[in-house]
Design brief:
Elements (H helix, E strand, L loop, with lengths): L1 E6 L12 E2 L3 H10 L4 E6 L6 H8 L3 E5 L6 H13 L5 E4 L1 H5 L11 E3 L3 H14 L9 E5 L2 E4 L28 E2 L5 E4 L2 E2 L10 H4 L5 E2 L2 H9 L5 E4 L8 H14 L4 E5 L2 H6 L1 H10 L1 E9 L3 H6 L6 H13 L3 E8 L5 H13 L6 E4 L7 H6 L24 H18 L2 H4 L1 H9 L5 H14 L2 H5 L15 E2 L3
Parallel strand pairs: 1-3, 1-4, 4-5, 5-6, 8-18, 10-13, 13-14, 14-15, 15-16, 16-17
Antiparallel strand pairs: 2-9, 6-7, 7-8, 11-12
């Protein structure tokens, strides 16, 4: 059976997708599971928005759409409608947001939602379609029929991560050189584990995995890395150092096999403080960048989001990272009740502590999270296109124009006044000389930086979007 898997297009000015275009790894993993029995293609609308022509020429029996992010809900619905209008007989949607909020897709153009991990669920769904079997017998689906949305029951999680097929990276129609992370280009992405043991109330990842954490073996990880041609590798795990011994064993595998790349991963600051040796070991293995959710410079604010970490640990981790010359993205949450004083405090803190790549995101209660359930009654904006971490869907203490002027001022101070851009001139020149970077790519990044630094962009309309579907859960057909 022919299956077309679709990644929605990006949007927004400013927007985080302007500075990072990562390969559609989720779809590649689903395609890896499907390709043994079916003819599969991937269509990335961030690169080619013409989905109608792709469907008409390929004539798939099923179209699968990824909706991991809340901001993609309306676009995913529109893609489903275009797919139906272009002749696709069956349309299904999966991904993190779709799994946690299937009622958002009570749309005649969507035949079903695959809830949870997509590899096994999508394969069993497509096999049932091919064989003409009853979809009610496939666990992990929310079926859209005349009587409404009906849930077929939970699908058990994938037991052994090493049994998963490799991502079908070769199915990207435009090749792999289009993907990047800031000035890292070309970029590959790899998943080595799923889940996080912590319970930050703003995070939807642990809710999606229902608190379970599973890992791929060091040998499996090294096998996958050995097959990547790209120099730069983004490890997509939400907490790569959740098992320090395993992380150490992976580094040993890389050294033993002579795998030489530059890596970026996400970690918690308290783990780095407790195990500074793992940073030294990974520096030798090629670690160049770490992403850390610092979240706040105020301990009470960390407690409010159930971070279970400390400002002191963040600062100690920075010292360890700086000791080894590793770049760090420190992510901070901007609360809607911030006034001028809180913005100024954060601005001074970032500059004083030498955070290489600061990131500022507005506290966003994503549907399906504990935070959303706690403060849903306070939400004033229901347009999902505002759930991009750059706009407040809650009332702001400051006038919106002042709030977003301050937010833009954080980026302007961090990336212009601090001289961060000037310090990266040589890496940029080297990228151009080696032809890994192009002038067009550099212009894109610099334009994105200008957009982040202009408060007027945050006030600009983001599109008409659509109404948020009525709240409610699909009925179950089995326990």
């Amino acid at each position: 059976m022919k299956v077309l898997l679709v990644q929605p297009p990006q949007f927004g000015t400013p927007g985080f997708t302007k500075v990072a275009l990562v390969e559609p790894l989720g779809l590649e993993m689903v395609a890896g599971a499907l390709r043994a029995e079916h003819d599969v293609r991937i269509h990335d609308m961030r690169i080619d928005e013409d989905i109608e022509s792709a469907i008409r020429s390929y004539k798939p029996g099923a179209v699968g759409i990824s909706c991991c992010f809340t901001i993609d809900v309306y676009r995913s619905q529109k893609i489903a409608e275009k797919a139906k209008a272009s002749g696709a007989p069956f349309v299904f949607i999966g991904g993190l947001h779709a799994s946690l909020n299937p009622s958002d897709f009570n749309n005649p153009a969507v035949d079903c939602i695959v809830v949870g991990e997509g590899e096994a669920g999508s394969l069993e769904l497509v096999n049932a379609l091919r064989d003409g079997a009853d979809l009610s017998d496939v666990r992990g689906l929310v079926i859209n029929n005349a009587s409404g949305l009906r849930f077929t029951g939970k699908r058990p999680p994938i037991d052994k991560m090493d049994d998963l097929p490799f991502p079908a990276r070769d199915l990207l129609p435009h090749g792999r050189r289009r993907y990047f992370f800031n000035f890292w280009k070309p970029l590959a992405a790899i998943e080595t584990s799923r889940g996080c043991p912590y319970r930050c109330n703003f995070c939807s990842v642990w809710a999606f995995y229902e608190g379970r954490c599973r890992t791929k073996s060091p040998e499996r990880v090294a096998d996958e890395l050995a097959g990547l041609k790209e120099k730069f590798v983004l490890i997509t795990d939400d907490n790569f150092l959740q098992n320090v011994k395993r992380a150490s064993d992976i580094a040993d595998q890389l050294e033993a096999r002579g795998i030489k790349k530059q890596y970026s991963f996400q970690a918690r600051s308290d783990t780095i403080v407790k195990h500074p040796g793992i940073i030294a070991k990974w520096k030798k293995a090629g670690l160049s960048h770490i992403f850390i959710g610092f979240e706040s410079v105020d301990q009470n604010e960390l407690k409010a989001v159930n971070k279970r970490n400390s400002v002191e640990a963040n600062e100690e981790a920075l010292k360890v990272i700086h000791r080894y010359g590793i770049s760090v993205t420190g992510a901070f949450i901007i609360k809607p009740d911030y006034g001028h004083q809180e913005f100024e405090r954060l601005r001074k803190y970032v500059l004083a502590h030498g955070i290489n790549v600061p990131q500022f995101s507005v506290l966003t209660p994503l549907p399906g999270t504990d935070l959303f359930r706690e403060i849903e009654s306070k939400i004033v904006y229901r347009n999902y296109e505002l759930y991009d971490f750059l706009h407040s869907v809650l009332p702001t203490k400051l006038d919106p124009a002042e709030f977003y002027k301050e937010l833009a001022g954080l980026y302007r101070a961090a990336y212009v006044s601090s001289g961060i851009v000037a310090k990266r001139v040589w890496p940029l020149v080297h990228g151009l000389l080696t032809r890994n970077l192009t002038l067009g790519h550099m212009r894109r990044i610099l334009k994105a930086a200008q957009e982040f630094a202009d408060g007027r962009n945050y006030l600009a309309p983001l599109g008409t979007g659509g109404p948020v579907p009525a709240a409610g859960k699909p009925s179950e057909t089995r326990s």
